[in-house]
Every structure is written in structure tokens, then in C-alpha cells.
Design goal:
The structure holds two protein chains of two kinds.
Chain A: H1 2-43, E1 46-47, E2 55-56, H2 60-67, H3 69-89, H4 91-102, H5 107-119, H6 122-133, H7 139-146, H8 161-186, H9 190-198, H10 203-230, H11 235-241, H12 251-260, H13 266-293
Helix pairs in contact in A: 2-13, 3-8, 3-10, 3-12, 4-8, 5-8, 6-8, 6-11, 8-10, 8-11, 10-13, 12-13
Chain B: H1 39-44, H2 46-74, H3 79-82, H4 97-105, H5 108-140, H6 145-154, H7 164-172, H8 186-193, H9 196-207, H10 211-219, H11 224-235, H12 237-253, H13 256-261, H14 270-280, H15 285-316
The chains are: A mainly alpha, B mainly alpha.
Chain lengths: 295, 321
């Protein structure tokens, strides 16, 4: 009996110690991750302006969203941004990586250069490009003028605003994907290429039938990551075109407007966040499943 | 909470990978790794190879380096030269004092120090807290440990933006203790510690350290804290380094979260202050460029020093598959 209580006491002590080690970290998770999730769900069903006591409004916030024309604009813009950003930011790094992988010189130089913009604080990259996009004497229009091409209004015309945002976003982010592709390319067994070449496969056939199948997993992972990241685009529209420009307003910009500028309505913003969460959560779950089962 | 972080490294295999060799063997210096095109073929078409190589270098310099050069160079021009309709590539006027003016007149110094404080403090707190969680989950194995690990990992699924509004409300009025953290460093430090990715990477690394080592230390009378400090941490230096770099970079680059929780100009980070000044102040573009340049220099320096760890850590995720 004495032995048993000693062991139990020992066990309790060990557990207390373990929880002491974890306490600070777990509290952070509780306050900034787990509790906000629960609170976000509750908030989206409440009318809450933090002056009057909150009350339950059922689905009213969601109804209000569906009645807001900006809601549809924001989703359309976000999908457009994501689509364009994928065309550039998903496909381009692949070909850059394949090209760089063939070079036998300067490989460190290329890696550093392509990743340099990724290191800039994103707002710096975007504000720098804001000067480049200046329709008057911005760098881009000066260059276009110099070579005799028609100038563009860039961010200030509804036809080119979105693509301008995609361009700066791609410039600032494609280094990450490029380096990850490069690492994956280096993991491909050289024998596979040798064998294909002996069988008479051309360069194009080797790319198509050796490289691509070997890269399928990493491409899928990066595709999901990019969808998740680009659907949360905020800085580019915020700093380049403002939060009330219907040409570029995105889901997250709309959340920001609902909560912090125009509406000051946290319930509405929470409802919008929940919808974004459901969409992104599906991609995240798929991503986690893929990467964890691969372990 | 890095709300605006770029795509994170995939979590698979994120333990510090063998850093890829800095340089591949040069052509002609023994058998190189076989790639799409064999070294023999590349050597046979040497002219084409060097043409493509040269073109790629030119495009890379133009696309990735010139914009940055433009930022640093515009900052030393006179406002009149900057406004020329045909811009000068090499500045004719030379006003390096623009950097000093920006540093004082835009109060960059203040924001710079703020950002350093947030980054260093957040790094320390996130590292200490996350090591604690990872160590307990990996080696002390408390009851409910598995469930807690699951809950931590589940937060990887939560896109940061989905928690924006409720997390902001938590900062305004922290549950239980009811303090307002707005405009305080804690508003950035504590969410930075709630980083499941760090916990996961650290725990995976700790898992690989044999328990025998700890048992031996325990017999010698070392307590749990001592075992962590004297055995686990020294062995984990590489992973601690990689995690540290990523925490600091994320804190320095973060924008949306500091924008929300630091409304007071005095407390703002460099990124948030620059975005505010871009819209409100009458700073001449040359000085503003100097401000942008100052904001980028620390990260560029960090990158040039730690490029192998950064690129290695980033590449580690894609090694599998």
C-alpha cells in the first residue's frame, strides 16, 4: 500500500512538472488559437458592438453578408487573384527551377537572387512597387516610354489593377516555391534520366515522363499552400489600391472593413471569417493529410 | 501569429535537413549529379549552354536585383533628379544624407527600435515557451499529452485570417485576467508563441534524442530542467537555430496583425509605420525610398549571413515525396 501511494505520488509529481513546462506555451495556444476559434463561431451568430451587451441574432449576420453586393465582389476578386497568382506563381517557379537545375555554374548566386525579394518585409516590396507603378514618372512607365510602348495606368485603372497586384505578389513570393522545387529536383535519381536517355527519350520526353511524375507530390503540396496563402491576400490591395476599391477588394480586406473601418461590426466580420475558414480549412486538411501520411 | 506569412515550409521532414552542398561540382570537375540533360551533352553544346546561362543571369539581375538597386539608388537622388521623366540609372546627384534625414524626420529610428524589440522579445518568448511544450510532450509524456499534441497540431489547420477578429478581441480584453494588451509588445509576443509549426519541429527533433542519455543523467541526479538544459538543448542547436531564424523573420515581416494591435503610432513596427506614412505624410519620395531601404537591410543581412540555414530549412520540406 505504501509502495502504491509512493508510485502514485511520483506519477502526480511528474505530471505536475510536465504541465509546468507546458503551461506558458499552452496558455498562448489557448488564448490565441483555441479560444478565438470558439469565440469566432459564437461571434458570428451575435450582434456585438462592445458598447451594448451582445445578443443572439441567429443567422442574421450571414444573411446580411449575402445581401451585401461587396460580398460577391470580394469573393470574385479573391478567386481571380488566386487564379492569376497560380498561373504565374505556381507554374513559373517550376520552369525556373528546372532551368536552374541544369546549370553547372553560379547555382548559389541564382538561389540567393531569387529568394532576395522574399526576405523583404512584404509592405516594403509593395510600397516600392507602388512607386514603380506610378502612372506619371514611375519606373515602369518610364521604361515603356523609353522603348516606345504604350504606357499603362497600372493600379489606377480597373482593367489592370488586379494583374498589377498579382505581379508584385509573384515577384515577392516566387523564390520560396522555386527553392522548394529545386530541392525536390535534386532528389530525383540520376539513373532515371540515364535509363530514359538510353531508351531514346528526348529532353522534352524526359521532362514529361521522368521529372513531372517525380515532382507530383511536391507540386500538389505547393499548389495547396499557394491556394491557402493567396486566398488570404491583404497587403497588396491594402497598400496599392485601398480598402474601398471594388476592383480589388478581397475577402480579407472586406473582413478588415467590416470589423475595423466602415462597419465596426465584429459579428459581420466574424461571419465572413468563418466562411473563409470553411473554404481554407478544406484545403488545409487536405494539405496536412498529404504531408503527414508521407512521413 | 504571423498573419501575413508567406507559405510556410511544409511540416513534413522539417527537421533540419542536411544542408545541400553550397555548390554543385563544376562542369569538368568530376562526375556531376545527373539531371535532365547530361553533363556530356551540356559540354557538347557549350555555346548554347553559356548563351542560356548568360541570358538567365541577365534576366535574374534585371528582375530581382535592379528593383532593389533602384530603391537604394533613388534614396540618394535629389527630389528634382528623382522626378525626371527619363530616370537616371546611376544617380547624378549624391545625397546620402537622405538616409539620415529619413532616420530622424520620419522617426524611422523609433519604429526600427520598436521592431527590434518585438522581434527579439518575441523570439525569446516563442523559443522558451515552445521548447517547454515540445520537451514535455516528447520526453515527460504527461497524461493527455497525445490529445494536447493533437490540439496544437490542429491549429496548423486554422488559417490565421480566420482568427483575426476574435484574436484581436482577446488582445483587447484577455480572458480571466482582463488586461488590455493593445499597443504593448505582449500583443505580438504571446501570439508568436502559439506557433504549432515550431512545437512540431522541436518535438520531432527531441524525439530522436535517445532516452538512455536522459536516464543516465537522471541517475547522476540531474533534474528534468537540468536534463533539458544540459543534454537536450546542446544537442538541438541546429534545430534551435533554424526555428529561431524563422521566428525572427516572421516577426519582422508580419504586417496585418501589428496593424491591428498597434494603432498607436508610438508603438508601431517599421512596416506598419511605413504604410501609414505612405498615405498621410508629405515625405519626399527620395526620403521614403530611404525608409524602405532601411526597413529591408536587416532582413537582407540576416539572409546573407544565414542563407544556408534558410535555404536548407526551406528545402527540407520538399526532400520527401
Amino acid at each position: 500500500m505504501a509502495v502504491l501511494t509512493a508510485r502514485v505520488r511520483r506519477k502526480i509529481q511528474d505530471n505536475l512538472l510536465a504541465y509546468a513546462f507546458m503551461a506558458a506555451g499552452l496558455l498562448c495556444f489557448a488564448f490565441f488559437s483555441w479560444y478565438p476559434l470558439v469565440r469566432g463561431v459564437i461571434l458570428s451568430f451575435q450582434q456585438n458592438n462592445f458598447v451594448a451587451p451582445p445578443y443572439w441574432v441567429g443567422l442574421d449576420n450571414y444573411r446580411a453578408l449575402f445581401d451585401d453586393p461587396l460580398f460577391y465582389t470580394a469573393w470574385r476578386n479573391t478567386l481571380l487573384f488566386t487564379g492569376l497568382a497560380l498561373v504565374l506563381g505556381f507554374v513559373l517557379p517550376f520552369f525556373i527551377a528546372v532551368l536552374l537545375n541544369e546549370f553547372r555554374h553560379f547555382s548559389g548566386f541564382f538561389r540567393v537572387l531569387v529568394y532576395l525579394p522574399v526576405m523583404l518585409p512584404p509592405i516594403v516590396a509593395v510600397l516600392l512597387w507602388r512607386y514603380f507603378y506610378d502612372p506619371g514618372n514611375g519606373l515602369f512607365n518610364s521604361v515603356l516610354r523609353g522603348v516606345g510602348l504604350p504606357e499603362s495606368q497600372w493600379t489606377q485603372s480597373s482593367g489592370t489593377a488586379m494583374i498589377s497586384l498579382v505581379l508584385v505578389s509573384t515577384w515577392a513570393n516566387l523564390g520560396g516555391a522555386t527553392l522548394m522545387y529545386l530541392a525536390a529536383l535534386q532528389g530525383i535519381q540520376g539513373e532515371l534520366y540515364e535509363a530514359a536517355e538510353l531508351d531514346g527519350a528526348s529532353v522534352w520526353q524526359r521532362l514529361r515522363h521522368v521529372t513531372l511524375p517525380q515532382m507530383r507530390f511536391i507540386m500538389l503540396v505547393l499548389l495547396l499552400l499557394q491556394i491557402i496563402a493567396t486566398m488570404q491576400v491583404f497587403i497588396e490591395p491594402f497598400a496599392l489600391t485601398g480598402t474601398s476599391n471594388p476592383d480589388t477588394i478581397t475577402v480579407l480586406v472586406l473582413v478588415y472593413r467590416y470589423a475595423f473601418t466602415v462597419n465596426q461590426d465584429f459579428g459581420l466580420a466574424a461571419a465572413m471569417s468563418m466562411l473563409l475558414f470553411v473554404v481554407l480549412g478544406a484545403f488545409s486538411a487536405l494539405y496536412l493529410r498529404l504531408t503527414r501520411t508521407a512521413d | 501569429m504571423t498573419l501575413t506569412a508567406p507559405p510556410q515550409t511544409p511540416i513534413s521532414g522539417a527537421t533540419p535537413a542536411p544542408v545541400p552542398p553550397r555548390r554543385r561540382p563544376r562542369a569538368g570537375a568530376g562526375p556531376a549529379t545527373r539531371t535532365l540533360i547530361s553533363t556530356v551533352d551540356l559540354r557538347r553544346h557549350r555555346g548554347l549552354y553559356f548563351t542560356v546561362l548568360g541570358l538567365t543571369i541577365a534576366v535574374f539581375v534585371l528582375v530581382f536585383l535592379v528593383p532593389l538597386y533602384w530603391m537604394f539608388a533613388s534614396a540618394v537622388k535629389s527630389p528634382a533628379e528623382y522626378a525626371l521623366s527619363t530616370p537616371t540609372f546611376i544617380p547624378h546627384s549624391w545625397h546620402p544624407e537622405n538616409y539620415a534625414t529619413a532616420w530622424s524626420s520620419m522617426r524611422i529610428a523609433r519604429y526600427f527600435l520598436n521592431t527590434v524589440l518585438y522581434a527579439v522579445g518575441g523570439w525569446l518568448i516563442a523559443l522558451i515557451f515552445d521548447v517547454g511544450v515540445a520537451y514535455a510532450l516528447s520526453k515527460l509524456k504527461p497524461v493527455l499529452g497525445k490529445i494536447l499534441l493533437g490540439a496544437v497540431l490542429a491549429s496548423l489547420m486554422l488559417p490565421a485570417s480566420a482568427l483575426l477578429v476574435p484574436a484581436y478581441l482577446t488582445v483587447v480584453d484577455v480572458p480571466l485576467v482582463h488586461v488590455n494588451l493593445l499597443n504593448t509588445p505582449w500583443a505580438l509576443w504571446l501570439p508568436a508563441a502559439a506557433n504549432a509549426f515550431n512545437v512540431y519541429v522541436l518535438k520531432r527533433f527531441f524525439d530522436q534524442i535517445p532516452d538512455d542519455l536522459l536516464d543516465a543523467a537522471s541517475i547522476d541526479g540531474a533534474g528534468k530542467l537540468r536534463q533539458l538544459w544540459s543534454i537536450i538543448l546542446p544537442l538541438s542547436r541546429p534545430v534551435l537555430g533554424v526555428v529561431s531564424i524563422f521566428i525572427i523573420i516572421a516577426l519582422w515581416k508580419d504586417f496585418l496583425w501589428p496593424l491591428l494591435v498597434l494603432p498607436e503610432p508610438e508603438a508601431q513596427t517599421l512596416s506598419v509605420a511605413l504604410s501609414r506614412l505612405a498615405n498621410t505624410s508629405q515625405v519626399p519620395p527620395t526620403e521614403f525610398m530611404a525608409g524602405l531601404a532601411i526597413a529591408s537591410v536587416p532582413m537582407i543581412v540576416v539572409f546573407l549571413i544565414f542563407q544556408r540555414s534558410i535555404i536548407g530549412g526551406l528545402s527540407a520540406g520538399s526532400m520527401k515525396g
